[in-house]
Amino acid sequence: MDQLLQxxxxxxxxxxxxxxxxxxxxxxxxIMRVVNFAHGELYTFGAYMVYLFSVLLxxxxxxxxxxxIVLGIMLGALLEWVLLSRLRGADIDTTMLVMIxxxxxxxxxxxxxxxxxxxxxxxxxxxxxxxxxxxxxxxxRVFVFAVAxxxxxxxxxxIQRTRLGKAMRATFQDRDTASLMGININMIYxxxxxxxxxLAAAAGALxxxxxxxxxxxGNLAVVKAFAIVILGGLGNMKGAALGGFVLALVEELGxxxxxxxxxxxxxxxLIILVLMVKPTGLFARTERxx
Length: 290
Known about the structure:
Strand order of the largest sheet: 1-2
Pfam families: BPD_transp_2
Protein name: Branched-chain amino acid transport system permease protein
Largest sheet: 2 strands, antiparallel
Order of helices and strands: HHHHEEHHHHHHH
GO molecular function: transmembrane transporter activity
Subcellular location: Cell membrane
Low-confidence stretches: 286-290
Mean pLDDT: 89
Radius of gyration: 19 Å
GO cellular component, one term: plasma membrane
Structural class: mainly alpha
């Protein structure tokens, strides 16, 4: 029983960061209809920014994470303005190819700047884990979970409670009508891509110190982000959050009771089964944002 509880706790913590990845990706697709293949590189960017500010420049660790998220938002806004704003009305295949190009360029730039050597980021938390009964968890992972949940709640609050969120929901439901009602569609798209990118950078900033930072770390992250979106239903933010926790649970139980070598395979086996049984996703709804 203690072993099962430990796996469930690990899945809960990992699932919170998976949810950030999935929410950011489905946020962009749901409103903009853009398949963001560069999402994993924004995740990598967040991790490297924490390394830059915390390790190389000696900035406070917590402040470094905030800076990484802000810079991720700014990079997302730049990508949208430079690449996607010029493709308004283009078909999904065109934007997909552009984002694949952005993915390749960003990854090679990271390789050039940081080299292929893995980096580690020390965290200012006690090494002694928090133990409750037969279950223990590192304080660093408690921190990651708390920040991830805060960001998930914050993003949902933004969508549901703010004027910007209402404008985003209106744009999702009917772009032309929203434009006629005075909503600046170009600004909504810019804000959407920037916020989705910021969430991806946040996931990288939180998980980079837990694992290691390297230029290719975004490859698996973007695949898992797509898997989460498929699980939750395209454009469904709540579904993406739940999908992140479901994927983490399947991976953790598979690694714990079958083999750690099959951790990633178990998650994608679940995706295959979901696509066979319910192609729209486990949590798909008619109204997927709002």
